[in-house]
Give the backbone structure.
Amino acid sequence: MAHSVSTEALQILWDWLRQQSLLRSPFFPVLFSLTVYLSCCLPYICLDLLYYRLTLVRRFKIQPQSKVTWAMAWKCLRKILHNHVCFIFPLSVVHWYFRPVFSPLLAPRMFTVLRDVLACLLLFDMQYFFWHLLHHKVSWLYHFFHKEHHFYTASFSLTTEHTGVWEMLSLSVFTTLNPVLLDCHPLTEMLFYITNMYLSVEAHSGYEFPWSPHRLVPFGLYGGARHHDLHHLKFKVNYAPYFTHWDRFLGTLRRGEDTQRKSGKISERS
Ligand SMILES: [Zn+2]
Ligand SMILES: [Zn+2]
């Protein structure tokens, strides 16, 4: 019963989306990407603003001494807008031209959506793990292509897409390719994109709550914010973006509790 209700809700959502002409516009991918990204960052930006006023917020901060300033936020925003306008927009127009929007009548079933989104996430996790490992092990790859993402040793939400062009394009290829490889419904593709973005921003948020994904997924299978925060702090550990199995297999997994937190103000790497 619950299953058919959720599938019906997906059909209503899909019927509404199919009527939106914006969905077929070449501007849609870039607007969608920016909107989803900024919407995921917004709650954490508010927390960063409240940081100075509320002690409660500081209690959930992974590196309590780190502060996010307007200058840091603006630097990230400028980078994100530049990458979207100069690279994501032209590429999404090319993608739109060669792969016109496919719009089937029926929405996918809820079970299929959940299964496909999880499969896309696991695939993305593996692709990024090996890309990331390679870009840390080969010094010139790190220097030219990944160093920019490590500018801050205490991440905050807007650092999620603070990357160089090559890293941004690699991630975009993985995100775009996976739903195609797994033959996903366009609605599933959108839901995967939103989930992937949320998890990525959450991993960079610098906050850890009782309801954070790594606290909800059992057996330490999911790394989340503490896991990725440690990567930004220690560099040679925790290469996977979300799950912990690849780092566990290859001996690069470190738990946040294993390592003493660095104190002092946020540091920057140039
Ligand atoms: Zn890295
Ligand atoms: Zn990162």
Summary: Residues 43 and 157 are 9 Å apart (CA to CA).
